[in-house]
Amino acid sequence: MIRDDYMVECKIETEDEDPKAAKSELPDSTPVEIPPNTDPRDPRGINQHLKLDFADVLGEPSSFHSLDKVWTWSDILFEATKLWCYRITSVFCAIPVSIVTGILFALVTCLHIWCLVPFVRICMVIVPPIQYCWENFLDNIIAPCSDSMGRCGHRVYMTIFKK
Known about the structure:
mainly alpha; about 60% helix; elongated
């Protein structure tokens, strides 16, 4: 629905009036400033897919038309029903969902700040010495043993026979 702030009153010329005289009566045409929306409810546009109008949902093909009043009232009732059902549903859902999501985001934030980040920082301090010891273990013990076992068994061949 369009708010009254966006409505501009314009004079409509009739055929009886002289267009030259009407021009002189009109004030100079200055652009009308549209007031900014002071209450942006979706500033990042995360719910663009929910902007549905009557024409997005219902449409009559050119071969079939209902009465004009039926079509107009259908449009009005669709928009009013959509608006009031949303408002009534949001009264019952918005407050509990806001409380639950607030609690969840608070818990996630608290866990992130007080548990995850310190754990990662501790790991960043502890891992380099452990990595150094592990590399030395692999290079000085495991690699020579694996190399020796490979040289000992490099002439071993296996043949599989079926009975």
